[in-house]
Amino acid sequence: MSRGAIIALSILGAIILIALGIVGWGFGVYNNLVSYDQNVKQSWAEVENQYQRRYDLIPNLVATVKGYAKHEADVFEKVAEARSSVGKLTITPQVLDNPQAFRRFQQAQDGLSNALSRLLAVSENYPDLKANQNFLALQSQLEGTENRIAVERMRFNQAVQSYNTLVQRMPSAIIASLSGFHVRAYFEAVEGASVAPKVQF
After folding, report:
1. What confidence tens digit (pLDDT) does each residue in 83-124 have?
2. Which phi and psi (to 5°) does residue 190 adopt?
3. Which of 78, 76, 79 lies closest to 67 in space, CA to CA?
4. Whole-number pLDDT of residue 191
5. Is the dihedral of CA 168, 169, 174, 176 positive or negative?
6. pTM listed for this prediction
7. Which of 127, 165, 167, 168 is most buried (most C-beta within 10 Å)?
């Protein structure tokens, strides 16, 4: 074999090794993107679980308050409207890929938080209601759920931050762009939304 052929084979071998290295790196980056994406989706599922728990608590809480505070029709109507607004949202994992849908979800949930705060404030005017064991239990469950919502939103934002960093950092941004991975939205702090309703016993 001539010296020229040996050099050509060496160059070809080097090119193949470099190409295999690049392909291997690309697969590694893609697998990291998939892992981070799955972490975001898992965190999202936990947020949804807590919001669903709150959604399910509301009818019993409203019914208990209505038994004592019949003259607060406006407050009950606002809670019903806010709960209905949340109930109308069709939430799928694709909401994470649609910033407008994500914003609508957050706005509906924040509206429900505000309506619930008003409902709990009503209880201050009704001493018998504040002493009702059923109401106290529901109020405690709601406070715990609101705290868990805040924690899960924070964890979701942390997962999104890690994912977004990987998606935007070079050179992984190239693989992300080619593979359809894109930046995800964060939960934004809305005035009063990050504070659980005040529960005073």
Report:
1. 988 888 777 767 888 888 888 888 899 999 999 888 888 888
2. -110, 140
3. 76
4. 55
5. negative
6. 0.78
7. 167
Please report, as a single letter, which amino acid is at residue 68: Y
Tell me the C-alpha distance between 132 and 80, whole Å: 22
Contacts of 68 (CB under 8 A, 6+ apart): 126, 128, 129, 132, 135
Q: Domain coordinates of the chain in residue numbers?
A: 36-169
Which residues of the chain, if any, have pLDDT below 50?
Answer: 193-201
Q: Is 96 exposed, middle or buried (0-12, 13-18, 19+ CB in 10 A)?
A: buried
- State the pLDDT at residue 194: 43
Task: Please provide the CATH number assigned to the domain covering 36-169.
Answer: 1.20.1440.20
Residue 133 confidence (pLDDT): 86
